């Protein structure tokens, strides 16, 4: 039996769904003299962003595999994804890229992960929990590794 993908499609046509779309930049530069005379600037008006995918199942999968061998975890994740980039939003391969927490979405935070010298997947700061987190605003529901934080406090 084939395993479920580690992402899900979300409805982007519903009213109020923000896509972090920065359209309009091309609109302001087209048909200018500099653009007409520069062949390299002529390209598609379509961006490279991919809307409508939620990778929360991937992030939970990675957290559940902490302590496992990175090569095995990565190969299983890639087999169940449409692309590899979302894995590295949470997992740092180099020490300089490590972060204790990673913001993935508007108000969703997850533990930062890294690959140790033995090739195992590890949490950057295992002591960090939802109780240590403070919300940036009180109007949204913030989560850390799927656990809500900052509600009804202050």
Précis, in short:
This protein is α/β, with parallel strands linked by helices. The protein has helices spanning 25-29, 33-37, 56-64, 70-79, 87-90, and strands at residues 8-9, 53-54, 91-92, 101-103, 108-111, 113-115, 121-123, 142-144, 147-149.
Note the topology.
Elements: E1 8-9, H1 25-29, H2 33-37, E2 53-54, H3 56-64, H4 70-79, H5 87-90, E3 91-92, E4 101-103, E5 108-111, E6 113-115, E7 121-123, E8 142-144, E9 147-149
Parallel strand pairs: 3-6, 5-8
Antiparallel strand pairs: 1-2, 4-5, 6-7, 8-9
Structure description:
By secondary structure, the chain is an alpha/beta fold. The chain has a domain of 96 residues. Helix content is 21%, strand content 16%. The protein is built from five helices and nine strands, in the order E-H-H-E-H-H-H-E-E-E-E-E-E-E. The protein has a four-stranded mixed beta sheet with strand order 4-5-8-9, with no helix packed on it. Strands 3-6-7 form a three-stranded mixed beta sheet. The longest helix is centred in the middle third of the chain and has 10 residues. 10% of the residues are buried. The mean pLDDT is 81.
């Amino acid at each position: 039996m084939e395993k479920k993908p580690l992402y899900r499609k979300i409805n982007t046509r519903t009213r109020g769904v923000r896509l972090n779309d920065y359209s309009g930049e091309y609109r302001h530069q087209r048909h200018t003299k500099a653009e007409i005379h520069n062949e390299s600037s002529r390209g598609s008006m379509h961006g490279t962003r991919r809307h409508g995918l939620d990778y929360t199942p991937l992030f939970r999968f990675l957290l559940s595999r902490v302590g496992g061998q990175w090569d095995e975890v990565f190969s299983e994740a890639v087999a169940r994804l449409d692309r590899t980039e979302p894995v590295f939003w949470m997992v740092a391969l180099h020490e300089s890229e490590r972060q204790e927490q990673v913001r993935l979405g508007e108000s969703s935070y997850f533990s930062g992960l890294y690959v140790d010298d033995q090739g195992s997947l590890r949490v950057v700061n295992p002591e960090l929990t939802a109780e240590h987190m403070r919300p940036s605003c009180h109007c949204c529901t913030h989560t850390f590794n799927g656990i809500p934080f900052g509600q009804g406090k202050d």
